[in-house]
Amino acid sequence: AGFPLENAFFHGNAKSDSDIKFAIENGIGYFIVDTYDELYAINKIAGELGKKQKILWLYLKSFLTPPLRS
Question: 3-state SS of the chain: helix, strand, coil percent to 5?
Fold first, then answer.
């Protein structure tokens, strides 16, 4: 469609390692990272490909802190 992929954002939960690798190999601009596991996977795969990958961290406090008990 003529849109430069380096300006695109890859968002969505449950990204597979093959999804991540494909996106990095094809020059995706940013990953929207939802979990630590995803962050580690992106870092590992980018390192294996000899690339640095830009990310945006989706910080949802409710997922990182335990619920309050009454």
Answer: 40, 15, 45
User: Could you give the dihedral angle defined by the CA atoms of residues 33, 38, 43 and 47, in that order, rounded to the nearest 10 degrees?
Assistant: -130
CA-CA distance, 55 to 36, in Å (whole number)?
A: 12
**Cα–Cα distance for residue pair 25/16, rounded to 1 Å:** 14
Residue with tokens 């962050």: 39
List the single range of 23-32, 45-54, 60-69 with lowest mean pLDDT: 60-69
**Within 13 Å of residue 14, how many CA atoms lie on the same side as its CB?**
0
Q: Would the pLDDT of 41 be above 70?
A: yes
